[in-house]
Design a protein that fits this description.
This protein is of the alpha/beta class and about 400 residues long. The protein folds into two domains: about 230 residues, Aspartate Aminotransferase, domain 2 (3-Layer(aba) Sandwich), CATH 3.40.640; about 140 residues, Aspartate Aminotransferase, domain 1 (Alpha-Beta Complex). The protein contains 13 helices and 14 strands. Helix 5 links the parallel strand 2 and strand 3. The longest helix is centred in the C-terminal third of the chain and has 24 residues. The chain is globular, with a radius of gyration of 21 Å. Bound molecules: pyridoxal-5'-phosphate. The site of pyridoxal-5'-phosphate has 15 residues, from helix 4 and helix 5.
Amino acid sequence: MNNNTMRIPFVDLNLQHKSIQIQLEQAIQAVLAQGDFILGQALSDFEVAFAAASGTEYGVGVASGTDAIALGLQACNIGNGDEVLLPVNTFVATLIGVLRAGAKPIFVDCDRQTALIDLEAAAKVITPRTKAIIPVHLYGQMVSPRQLLDFAQTYNLLIFEDAAQAHLAERDGYRAGSVGIAAAFSFYPSKNLGAFGDGGMLLTRDPDVAKKMVRLRNYGASQKYFHIEVGTNSRLDTLQAAVLREKLPYLPKWNCDRNHIAQQYDRELLPLASAGILPLQNHSDVGHVYHLYVIKIDNACPLTRQQIQEKLAELGIQTGIHYPIPCHLQPAFTNLGYQPGDFPQAEKLATQILSLPMYPGLSSSEITEVVKSITSILSVEPQQLLCL
Ligand SMILES: Cc1ncc(COP(=O)(O)O)c(C=O)c1O
């Protein structure tokens, strides 16, 4: 069964789009009529609205989340000669952003229960050259802002959030994007707030960072044809901003739906704990926005993750792995000098995690079907394996 014929896909954006289709079409038509395709009105409107919704001051729309990290670090004057701490179990774009900014990435292992960056481990790799930490609010759960701010103050570091998976997430009274000097967001279509293509944004409350970012995304120009630094072409299209602006008011409801879906998964998966199927741990006080719903398949499970994933696919249920190879083991980055075994928690988790279908509109009966399918696979397969 290929991805298009899955009965329960991993993500289905159609439901979301159909519910506001007329509005989206009108927003696109308005940009066509206006013709301000580059740096147009809808972009400025969306930048203001998204920054305000995230509890901060300025938004600068760029072409992708990766550019928001790479250019955003530069805008914060983090680059050559600076060491930057980041979790090793992130999407590779976090790492690419650090490298593109010219800084040296220093990987940190994660917490085994939550998969978030381990700040105790981070403290052990700080040197006089460490300038910043990039907490990745992985899967939609924020790294504790309170702990991050203490950490940054103790070691005199900047906090640059990777909030690509955490639009409007909350914790300790902070929204994602409002904790550090700046934060990067992605609007890749399947993100909690997704465009009709690629897109990203840097949020900051620092006017100088915002001004520099505005230049960097537009060839380094401070005014037309006057270039004061080497920038690039990385602007969020007006059309994409118009779509995102229409979607933004629905985001709290969509995040709430994700939360309810996660709670149902949590409840229904409970009996499978003894069979080695465990949801990742979430802090009870968090405004988790569940970009992904991730389970761990541990040693108590009679089947491998691959067996479970394949069997679910046969039953028409699509799953994902985020991410199967930690950054330090990716072939492109062997020159960073890390080895297998350097990050035991992240390496172990990479072999255990499985992301279940998660999107607003996933119905209660579909959630039950996913869990029942896992249950039936677990109860059937052991005898079959014994016969092999
Ligand atoms: C944690 C994280 N950081 C960065 C990115 C990069 O965003 P984009 O795909 O928009 O470049 C992503 C998204 O894919 C992500 O999940």
